[in-house]
Amino acid sequence: MIRVLLVDDQPLLRSGFRALLDVEDDIEVVAEAADGREGLALAREHLPDIALIDIQMPVLDGIETTRRIAADPALAGVHVVILTNYGLDEYVFNALRAGAAGFLVKDIVPEDFLHAVRVAARGDALLAPSITRKLIDRYVTEPSPTGAGPGLAGLTNRERETVVLVAQGLSNEQIAARMVISPLTAKTHVNRAMAKLHARDRAQLVILAYESGLVAPRSR
């Protein structure tokens, strides 16, 4: 059973998302919150698999809520998915850096919404290759290297190669084809690299690859 926490200051939207989720046999909405502070408390109480969090809310916004969830070891199993009206804007970019596993635009069709919840629950990053490339483009225009990240020296050559390909926006299947390995082996390399670099998900792995200098931003 996938346990979901809804955090949005608009009751109508919460009701709509809940109506979609409640009819699914493998998904359970365990709690709802109208702001980030309440959502953080409920996350600690219920330990959901997924926290669907609105990016702009009163009291505590989605970015700070995400940051606090990501920083709490007790909430390591909570995958944050940001809800937004605007696509990959400044707020979403900052939320991904804060530790969000991905994001959804609120006008998503129901089938894609349910699929996205299940993808995030598996621990896979909710970023299509096209979105990953948009994330990369931000680093192309505004790189902010901070030096080598934790665990970088501990990566094997194959893991380093995998991280580079992830940072280029390739899916596991594309990585497998490029490295001439199976998709399962590619996923294993990705997961091991995330563990060594303390990245919560694929989005964080992309960011760490650029911030650590493992991948250099291209010049325009």
Structure explained in plain terms:
With 220 residues, the protein is α/β, with parallel strands linked by helices. Helices cover 50% and strands 13% of the residues. The protein contains ten helices and five strands, in the order βαβαβαβαβαααααα. α3 links the parallel β3 and β4. The radius of gyration is 17 Å and the shape is globular. The model has no long low-confidence stretch (mean pLDDT 84).
How are the elements arranged and paired?
Elements: E1 2-7, H1 11-22, E2 27-33, H2 36-46, E3 50-54, H3 62-71, E4 79-84, H4 90-98, E5 102-105, H5 110-121, H6 129-141, H7 157-167, H8 172-179, H9 183-196, H10 202-211
Parallel strand pairs: 1-2, 1-3, 3-4, 4-5
Helix pairs in contact: 2-3, 3-4, 6-10, 7-9, 7-10, 8-9
- In which range does the helix fraction lie? 40-55%
Largest sheet: 5 strands, parallel
The helix/strand class is: alpha/beta
Strand element count: 5
Low-confidence stretches: none
Shape: globular
State the helix count: 10
Mean pLDDT: 84
Give Rg in angstroms.
17 Å
Q: Give the strand order of the largest sheet, numbering strands 1, 2, ... along the chain.
A: 2-1-3-4-5
